[in-house]
Amino acid sequence: MAPPLLLLQDIRQGFGTTPLLRDATLSVGPGERLALVGRNGSGKSTLLKIAAGLVTPDGGSRFLQPGATLRYLPQEPDLSGHATTLSYVEAALGPGDDHYRARYLLEQLGLTGEEAPASLSGGEARRAALAAAIAPSPDILLLDEPTNHLDLPAIEWLESELAGMRAALVLISHDRRFLESLSRAMVWLDRGTTRRLEQGFAQFEAWRDQVLEEEERDAHKLAREIVREEHWLRYGVTARRKRNMRRVGELQSLREKHRQRRGPQGGVRLASTEADGSGSQVVSAEGISKSFGDRTVVRDVSVRILRGDRVGIVGPNGAGKTTLLNMLTGELPPDSGEVRLGTGIEKVALDQRRASLDPSMTLSDALTEGRGDMVHVGGTPRHVIGYMKDFLFLPEQARTPLGVLSGGERARVMLARAMARPSNLLVLDEPTNDLDLETLDLLQEMIADYPGTVLVVSHDRDFLDRVATSVIAYEGEGRWQDYAGGYSDMVAQRGHGVRARMEAQAATPAAKRAAEAQAPASPARQRLTMGERQALKTLPGEMEKLSAEIAKLNDILADPQLYARDAARFAKATELLAQRQAALAAAEERWLELEMRREEAEATPAR
Predict the structure, then answer these.
(1) Nearest to 23 by CA among 9, 37, 34
(2) Does the residue 411 lie in any domain?
(3) One domain, residues 92 and 22
(4) If exposure means fewest CB atoms within 10 Å of the residue's CB, which of 162, 181, 414, 551 is most exposed?
(5) For position 422, what pLDDT does the model report?
(6) CA atoms of 250 and 254, how far apart (whole Å)
């Protein structure tokens, strides 16, 4: 086994009297693909800064192999001292590196290279920093939330770019699909210590649940007093995930109903359905269009949304997702066509900018709106402490000012406030920003339990697969198409995922030059490696085996008396079914990706 390029041992770090890291370890070997996961506030970013040599720990050792090059992507990069984004990225290149790669990467990330750093938004600065991190092809690449502020085409491009690099990767990300695609091993940072799993993210959550369950059993065996709130905070994760997995079948049923539904058939039928349905129809849009100047954002779109639908809206940045969302909810009138909203609509929108949060307000007052200690949820009063626990807050945080909460915690506050208000239409614009994996599970559970209709704009593919009954996807030139199912279902029907706006690409001469310059190398990148060709041969057999196992488990669970007769076997079969279904979905997606790449490679003429 090759010696590690980077090794952290017995790392200790605290802030004041609170220990953040206790004997944490991180080992990175040549070409390894590690995902660093943990709750918000667990110390992941701090550990990555220590690995990058930017923070000196209170204790422990850091070793970097002499001569090894390391690059680090921070969450808040500093571009000061550079005239343009291009000069910033070029400064990161080594003596033998190709300077054209700097411009190519900036173009791929939606920048021209001529931007002045002082004029950049936070998202643009992070994209420039990402280009600077990957441009020199270092030996070790440390990336802290690289997909933040990227749209779907950029995320999928970044996946491909990182997969083709020889650098060792350490990734912090809340994007499950991104981690599944790139990780080959996991480092779980929990309560200040690290555990390692020599498998990718697809196996992480089941492994984590097993570790927590073993801890719980050991604690009971030793008759130790477990702090009540700590027990709830840690071990409640497994129950939430299992509930989410059991809802997979229900979601599939809803998607099947959507597939069988016919679209709008004209004004007379829509009016009749609306009158007879008595509120069952939430939105009906017929031939709606919207333009800004010479650019048409929405062109002749017709869609019908019924009560209980969960509709995802996907597309590249600048395609008009928020415009379409505002048109469907009546916030923005169309230039032509008609939008009808159902009767008795009560809408709640999630403010992702969190502008409505007063930093000086306490958590308790934010949830009760300053009216005592009770929160009214669905017409039922609940004590604010109990409601806080539903959103993973501890009782002692009740008097904590919102200004000191992390981004993920403020996102949970917004979720809690939104769900406490009476509504039957929930509008979510990028709800997964800054959410850790446990909070994502919580959000998915809330959406599954929500009795009304949900409209969501998101770049998180896994999230859309878990919650959406249908997806409205951008097709180019203002056209939008409704697909039944989640994001993966849409990809299967279209043959590809979300792509960058073609009109935007065509309008950028530098993008054309970048594409032309990269063209000679593209066939080589498209061809499958030996391992990928082998996977393409073996995956059908694996999928067939998994399908057979799923059928057997479904037969076992079909016994209505199984739970009463053998609760342990029922629980085991349910858990295995969830694991096999997740493995089958991953295998199908991998096979589809490889098959598409094989076809593209065969269609590409030799040079």
Answers:
(1) 9
(2) no
(3) yes
(4) 551
(5) 82
(6) 6
